[in-house]
Design brief:
With about 425 residues, the chain is of the alpha/beta class. It contains 16 helices and 17 strands. About 45% of the residues are buried. The protein binds flavin-adenine dinucleotide.
Length: about 425
């Protein structure tokens, strides 16, 4: 049976799929517009935390190059500002890790070619797809660029937003002390923004990523529109002022004399994301299927750190089905979609829900946060469920579920835990 797989895009989706296929001796070619060398001088593309479920897949793929003892982190501190600020902590069952994609992707590209994968370095556009479809039995599209965002139609039923819900200012910084036990600090300044502080491995070693999720029209939006390069000292002062006002839990560990970009001005990324779900596949003129994977299929705002983890999950499921099946037709797509759908849609819905809840702070959401702050067990469960977005959506899909989750009898879990452990 011929299984020639063409993959467009060498992000986490394309590379993890390619590596899975090579592990199973399946022919895979990745097309991408950038060489490994291009990444050293590239702008920060994002600041992606991989959760334990993703790290487990990385281990299985032989690409777990950065041990979590030294580079991972172990849970979340939460800070909710307001007249009576709340601070509390939740643990993961196993650590997460954020490696600069300017290091991660070139490494995975080298791993892929070392395992016999082929990388063809050139930009691909929609116009190339007929030629490519003649060369492959299945095309997997892992970028929205080159016109592919239009080829796969927007799925309006699952895309409630037509524009970004936050203005982002993201960077990698030095001058912020790590906590004694490395953890994400997830801060919210009610009605103004969220800040995700992430222990982050970059070119010079461990540093701190800051993801400012600024509410549109609020006091923090200026961070998205102020250019570091115009006046670095003024930019640093502005950011320090905003940290002091809105995110004291990060500011209190920041040394203003040391605070600056970790590597270079390329460490700053500003912009916005429109949450979008797209159709999962397109049948091309010659009958070959083009399948959407990763952000092209579902793009979420980064406020909960789900996009890369969803992409990795979906790449794994797709890899398994390519190995298991011999014909890449509509039935194949149906099986793949059924297996990835719950996680991808739950992550999308939970993220959209949280963006809204953090905008308007409905009473049941405030009650939820208050309960977590008082019960470490609940905080641990909520934190660990960043690994399992479908479990989060089980909690938030209906207001009645929030109360049910908070008051659930967990003693049975304790018994199971005790027996297992
Ligand atoms: C600020 C920020 C923080 C984030 N934090 C997290 C987080 O903590 N956790 C998490 O899970 N997710 C996070 N995400 C989301 C995550 O970055 C994405 O979901 C993930 O990178 C998507 O991977 P992908 O492979 O689908 O696409 P991409 O990473 O976009 O890969 C696309 C690939 O295609 C190539 N390409 C582009 N155009 C062409 C072309 N014309 N021809 C050929 N190749 C082309 C590119 O070079 C690249 O290799 C964050 C995103 C942002 C913006």
């Amino acid at each position: 049976v011929s299984k020639r797989i063409g993959i467009i895009g060498a992000g986490t989706a394309g590379l993890q799929l390619g590596l899975y296929l090579r592990q199973h001796k399946i022919e895979a070619t990745i097309f991408t517009d950038r060489t490994p060398e291009d990444y050293t001088s590239a702008r920060l593309p994002n600041t992606v935390a991989h959760h334990a479920v993703t790290i487990q897949r990385e281990r299985a793929l032989g690409i777990d190059h950065w041990n979590t003892e030294d580079h991972g982190y172990f849970g979340h501190h939460y800070y909710l500002g307001g007249p009576d600020p709340l601070r509390f902590y939740g643990d993961y069952h196993a650590p997460s890790r954020a490696v600069d994609y300017r290091i991660y992707h070139p490494q995975l590209m080298n791993d892929f070619t070392a395992q016999g994968g082929v990388i063809d370095y050139r930009p691909i556009s929609e116009a190339d797809i007929d030629t490519l479809s003649a060369q492959f039995d299945l095309l997997v599209v892992c970028t929205g660029k080159g016109g592919f965002g239009k080829l796969f139609a927007r799925d309006a039923a699952h895309s409630p937003h037509e524009k970004p819900q936050r203005q982002l200012c993201v960077g990698v910084f030095k001058g912020i002390d790590q906590l004694p036990t490395r953890a994400v600090v997830w801060g919210a300044s009610p009605t103004q923004g969220e800040l995700i502080e992430i222990p982050y491995l970059t070119f010079g070693g461990m540093a701190t990523a800051l993801v400012f999720e600024n509410h549109i029209g609020g006091d923090l939006e200026v961070l998205t529109h102020t250019k570091y390069g115009d006046d670095p000292a003024a930019f640093r002062k502005l950011m320090l002022d905003k940290l002091a006002t809105h995110y004291p839990m990060t500011y209190e560990r920041t040394d203003p004399r040391e605070f600056d970009v970790a590597n270079s001005p390329l460490d700053i990324l500003q912009g916005a994301v429109t949450p979008t779900v797209r159709e999962t596949s397109v049948a091309l003129d010659n009958g070959t299927i083009a399948l959407a994977l990763g952000d092209l299929h579902a793009t979420v705002d980064p406020v909960l750190g789900q996009g890369g983890n969803m992409a990795s999950h979906a790449a794994w499921v797709l890899g398994e089905e390519i190995v298991a099946q011999d014909v890449f037709d509509h039935r194949f797509v149906e099986v793949v979609d059924a297996r990835r759908r719950d996680r991808v849609l739950a992550a999308t819905r939970w993220t959209n829900f949280m963006l809204g809840a953090l905008d308007t702070l409905p009473a049941e959401f405030q009650g939820f946060i208050g309960a977590l702050a008082q019960d470490r067990k609940l905080a641990d469960e909520f934190t660990d469920n960043f690994n399992f977005p479908e479990k989060q959506w089980d909690v938030f899909a209906h207001p009645a579920r929030i109360g049910a989750w908070l008051t659930r009898d967990r003693s049975q879990n304790d018994l199971v835990g005790a027996a297992a452990g």
